[in-house]
Structure formats: C-alpha cells, structure tokens
Amino acid sequence: MNRLLTLFACIAMPVALLAQKGSDIPAFGKVEKADLEMSACDFDAKADAVVLFDVGELFCNIQSGGDMLLERHVRIKILRDKGKDKADIHIPYYSFKNIEYIKNLQAQTYNLDGAGNVVTTKVEKSLIYDKTIDKYYHEQIFTFPEVKAGSIIEYKWKQAWSGISLEEWFFQREIPVKYSRYRVDFPNEIEFYSTPYCVLPFESKKEDKSNRIIQTYVMKNIPALRDEPYISCDKDYLQRVEFRPMALNLPTRRENLLKNWPQEIKKLMEDEDFGVQLKRNIPRTSDLDSALKNITDPYRKMKIIHEYVRKHMEWNGLSNIWASNGVRAAWKDKKGTSGEINLILVNLLKDADLKAHAILVSTREHGIVSSMVADIDQFNKVLAYVEIDDKVYVLDATEKVTPSYLIPPNVMFSEGLVIEKPETFEWGWKPIWNEKSLNRNVVVMQATIDDNGAMNGRASLYSYDYARLQRIEEARKDKAKFLEKYFKTNNQGAQVDSLELENLEADTLPLVQKVHFNVPVSASGDYKYFSTNLFTSLEKNPFLADNRFSDVFFGINQSFSIVANITIPEGYQFETLPKSIRMIMPDTSIAITRRLVAENNQLSVRVSLEFAKPFFAVQEYPDFKEFYKQLFAILSEQIAIKKK
Questions:
Q1: In which band, very low, low, confident or very high, does the pLDDT at 573 lie, cut at 50, 70 and 90?
Q2: Does one domain contain both 149 and 280?
Q3: Which of 134, 162, 190 is the last residue of a domain?
Q4: Which of 148, 216, 479, 602 is most buried as measured by Cβ atoms within 10 A of its Cβ?
C-alpha cells in the first residue's frame, strides 16, 4: 500500500490493447515440457532464473463493507544453480487485529526425470511457516523442495483484508519476467485512480461490466533490473503501477477516501504506540543525571543523551516507527525496535529542555517518499530532530558510529516529516541535508623511484566525516582485511604493508591511515612511466555503460585530494609533463584541478576533485558519463621520465 514518487514520471504512453484473458494463463499444475527443457531466457541472456508469469486479480466486495481479496499466481523457471535462491519464498502481510490474512496457499516443484516425464513435488503444509515480524506484520515462509537448474516452481495464494485499499503492482523484478498482469475489479460506487511508473511499453484496458469497473495492466518480456553503480534504491526504479481510492459514492452522499497529512498526524499523535509514547515519563538513570549535571550548553546536552542511549540500548534489528511494547518496557529491558529506541531518545531530549521532535523518515534502501501522498506506510523509521540556534541535528540511536553532528548517511539528502500536534503548526516536511558535510579523502604521498623500476614510499590517507564513517568499523575490526580492501584491491601489483591507524575513537577527527608501499613502474627503452593516482578509491571508472536506467545517487557532496612529492633517480629527467589543468562540468557541479611542478629531480603534484552536487538525474547521464571519461583520463595520465 505504497507511495507515489515525484522523482520521475512515466514517459511511456500506455497502448490500449485487449488484456489477456485469465484462461491464457495455464492452470495450476499444468506445466509444458518445453518450459522444463528451456535453458535460457530469450530476452535476457544473463538471467539465472526467469518469471514465466505473475498474475494478480484484486476484487472488492462493497456489500461486506469493502472487503478485499487478492488472488496471486506465480511460476518461475530456474535456469542456473545461482537462481536457486528464488525458491526461498516470503509473503508478508498486515496481521494486526487479524485485518489481513493469507489462505489457500499451494506450492509445487516440477522436474523432468531421466525418461523425460514431469515429476511433481508438493510443498507440504507442515513446511509453511508463519513468522512474526513485529506487532503489525507477519510473513508466510517456505522453501521449494527438489530445486535445481532446470526446475520450475509454482505457487498461488489468496490474500484478504478489510477496508478499501489497493495494492501496488510491480511488473519488474531482479530477474526477468516474461508476462505480468494485474487486474483490479471494483464496484462503480468506488472511484479510484491508477498511476503507472513505467518507461517500458505496457498494455492497459478499462471495462464497465455489471456495475463494476475492471482495469487491467499487462507487461511482457521485462528485463531484470540490473544493479547499477550508485543507485539509491532498486524499488524506486522498478516498473510498476500504483492505485489509490478517491471516493465512495453512496446513495445519499459522496465520501472522500483521500487522506491528508493533518488527519494522519492527528491519528498518529493519538496512537498508543506512537504519540502516547512521546508523553511517557522515562526515569533518568543516576549516571545519566550525573553526566548532565552542570551542563548548560545545548549541543553538549544533546550529544551526552544521544551517546548514552545508543550505548545502553540494544537494537533488536526491527526497523519501524512504533513503540509496540512501550518505551518504558524497552528502557527497562535495554533493548527494543528502532521505533522504541528513538522515541526514548526524543523523550529524553525533550526532558532536557531541548527543542526536539520525532521525525519520520524512509531510509535509502526503503525508497523515496512523496509529500503529496498522505500515507504513513511510506516511512520505515523514526529519528530525533533537534534544533539548536540556527542548526539542525538528526539523530539515530540504533546505530553506533555516526557522530551527533553528522546526519545518518542512510537518510542524508532526503526529506522527513516532523510530527507534532497539527494545531501547534510545528509539524511539517523538513529537508534532511547538509551541503557542508562531505565525503572527503586526502592522500599525502612521499615517494622515490629507484633504478630497479619501482616506486617506494609512504602514503598517509586522511578520511573525514562520511569518508571516515565508510571505513571506521572495518578499520576497528580487522586491519588485514582493511588493508586488502582499501589499499591493495584497486592497486594491482602494489605491495603495501605497515598499516598504522590513528583517531580510531576520536569521531570528530579524520581517520588517519599510514602505509609503506612499493609499486612497479612501467618501462620502455629509456623511458619509465608512473601515476600518482594511488589509494584514492578513484582508480576505476564505475560509469562505463553506454546507457543507464537509474539516476546516479552519491547522496553526499564529495572531495578528493592528492598531494604527492616524487623523487626520480639520478641520470633521469622529466619528459614533457602533463599540463596543469582545470576542468568543470557545464553546471559547475564537478570540478577537477591538477597542478604539476618539476624542479631538478623533484616532482610536486596537486590534484583536487570537488563534487558540489549529490545527485545526477538519468537524463544527465550522457554528459555525466563523458565528463567521467575525461576525468579518469586526467587521473590516470602517466608521467614519463627519460634517461639523460
């Protein structure tokens, strides 16, 4: 029951074609031998598995008060062993007060035996498990038996719930889909609208039958959504259609079914698991009281409370906005959901006379939210939003690394909804963004090229703010793996050792990483060639694809610097040096500056690369890709020296 996006609109026009009849889908259990013999997907050759069909029929019965019934039927072909994970099935549903339930679940595996006969293996009901996710959601879980490359798996079920609401339909998956159809069958009394978010062709049909409106959407031969570098959230780019009820036309009146934010916030503030919890009196511990004693600076107060909660509260791994078991119980147990822990944090901040609010957010992996659609389901987490003078801080006590002055990276460059009573006018949408906080790396290098054709030296890498966050946990955990990942993997041929780490516990200082290195230098006749682009994480261009489906999302402004001083051996001189250069994107969002100065046998190199924009729309990709091509040509340009 998901959300409209404002990031991009559907640019493919629907073609009004007759949607396929339900009889065009094979009956459950009727499998063609040709499908079992199929060894590849004809429109997506890289696929490890393919959805043969995925059809859903949603029916609304207004006579029973708006009961909804979704019938779903899915068949998947396993092409390679890597595709066997598609046999692990999870079907989530909203279980609170038995509003929604699943019934008539059937599942079977099909294989060919040595004689070419179809062998069917059923999933026994005893192997289908109902798992509690939290107070509001459960899921049905099962795994298909006898699955191997060549198998077909098939399952169908019915999902029923009370109240007029419509499910979104995803045509696309992480594996290709041959045929996907969604049909919505509603009485004329209910007005609803549909919004397709598709850049691939789709078919649609609308019918009026027996005082009912039947709307059908079909897509065919849908390629898998491939993982692209720096994609924000796969779900935001999946081909899909979203439906929303607008109104109920009763004999005597028209009842509006569209919600607005003041109504939703009012309900939220009165909810036992949210607003009521913000008013709970949480007893402060003696050690917290002691830490806060005589502290008058608001920022220090906030930091002490933030660090205390995340040190003493254990997150149970469940991410939601609710305090289902209550903040007092979670405080006593020292363990809870993200909702419980962060509502405790908001409580304690308010109790310390700080201007703090609860703010609802959608984390990066959960997808984009739309302020135009009043739907609490858009959010998967609640955080603390604190205002001190003219500065804003966003705090998450479930994660242990991000310092109080930085916005958590999984919500940076997004939008959140501050929750307060509507009549106070303190609620509203807030940008979660700080352009001054950077992902910043500085490499300082001193090196000598010897007569044997090697560059030897010492490098110090300074990682600030978000660059520090990306590395700090790995640095603390395993120095050998850290050295391999950040200093060897992208610098093939380099011998790197003697890793020293500084400021591991000082979160306001850069993480300092010092290494000794030995890198082979290319040679041809009297010439030797080398590059100073080492240990920057910019050794390989990630944007080589000619076409791109998703936007480029860095999420944070970035800064990279190289400061290198190189000594060449006696008897050699510098050939014509690469030019000092400054190159800027047309919109000035990216700029690189390089300066080289040579004197006698000493070379000084200064490179600065600045990103003043965290996001590039897919429409910008052709220019962005061309700039990146030139950017990496500059970074990897070789410096030549020649025997005198």
A1: very high
A2: no
A3: 162
A4: 216
